Amino acid sequence: MNIIKKRDKKIEEVLGVFLRGNDRVNIGIWSLKIEEVYQKLMGDFVAKYTEKIKLNKDGVLYIHINSSPLKSELFLKREQLKENLNHEMGSEVIKEIRLK
What we know:
Elements: H1 11-20, H2 23-48, E1 50-55, E2 60-65, H3 68-76, H4 78-89, E3 96-99
Parallel strand pairs: 2-3
Antiparallel strand pairs: 1-2
């Protein structure tokens, strides 16, 4: 008689369960991905003037820019930027963008 129960699970299932219950890990993973996507969308020129990108747990993305003209330009286009970043991320991660 075989009474051993099979408990094999795919790594995606195990990680999915772990990530759903751990907001801090989720924010860290999204933050890393946002930096990559931001670099890809904005290009080297804008990335050169971007000091820091930080996503908080409420979905607010803080972008620190060290060029006033560039900051003004991005301020006017922040809704479009939010939509583009969320689209590339594949999820509505960013609720708001604040420029510093």
